[in-house]
Description:
With 355 residues, the chain is of the alpha/beta class. It folds into 2 domains: 7-279, TIM Barrel; 290-354, no CATH class. 44% of the residues lie in helices and 10% in strands. It has helices spanning 20-33, 58-73, 93-109, 128-142, 160-165, 172-179, 200-210, 225-228, 263-275, 281-293, 295-303, 305-311, 319-328, 333-342, 351-354, and strands at residues 7-11, 37-40, 77-82, 113-117, 147-151, 185-188, 215-218, 250-253. An 8-stranded parallel β-barrel has the order 1-2-3-4-5-6-7-8. Helix 6 packs across helix 7 (200-210).
Amino acid sequence: MSAAPELGVIEGYFGRPWQHADRKLVISRLRELGYTFFHFAPKADALLRRRWRDRHPDAALAELADLSAHCRGLGLRFGVGLSPYELYRDFSGADKAAFIEKVRSLDAIGIDDLAILFDDTRGDVPDLAAREAEIVHTAMAHTRASRLLMCPTYYSDDRMLDVVFGERPAGYLQDLGRRLDRQVRVYWTGEEICSREFSPGHLARVAEALGRKPTLWDNYPVNDGPRMSRFLHLRGFTGRRPEIAGHVAAHAINPALQPHLGLIPAATLVSSYREGADYSYMSAFRAAARALAGAQLAALLEQDLHALQDRGFDQLGEDRERLRERYAAVDHPMAVEVVRWLDGADTVDGWLEQA
Length: 355
């Protein structure tokens, strides 16, 4: 048995955001499972990304305030992820004032955590770390949130980030660690953008570079993007050995596009820390599926696991209609999500370009 780190969710996927009612229901279940924080940062919310300077409509702010109240009522920390798109290019004048005003508007809805996210933008400038640290410290000076986090532009060792967003500055991670206030937590996805595993050795090296333990941004069970959205990620967590607990400040998962189905793998992460060396990912899947979906639907999901998670939407062929009929006959939110996915409603073609 191993003591788990603080567990949370960073809703940071590309694609159609969850419905508000679904989000509240899922958060309640996550709290029951043992999760303690929730960060709202869907890539589809342009007012938190490319249009960050614009004010959220009153209805959207009211919905976020309601979500905050729901989380706090459960004893769960609520946060928002703000991605001030390319603000680092000129952090002065009207843009700086707009950033401070945006931070204050998020404070008004009631946040415990504020995350400043620099992911998925170009970063090939020599003084990138200094510019990002200045923005983070400005947020710290003007927010009432009791905890501040940031996501670096280069949030993984994965060289794909350099291919897509430009070569990372030399010593970027070390420079960022030196400049950031020690109270600021730093999100990190691991050796890859979607890491197959997290090892104590890797996490220790990252902690040394940053001068603090990283907060994991774990890209499982997320299934966003044009390719991954064609698969349902349902299996239990693997590659998250319980001994990593002492090497991280917290462990947050990026959830699937299907909020209810994503609860199944979320439950297995709790089991992996709790059970330690006794953890079995398929046994954990079965237990979580039965508890969350009921015996009938759990049996169907296990039977169709290979088709849904490995073959995927494009390879189902004639099986797609057969599967649709099976799940359409089950009265459960998870079954509804399977049907919606089989109908092609959750594919994310084009979302990367829009966000």
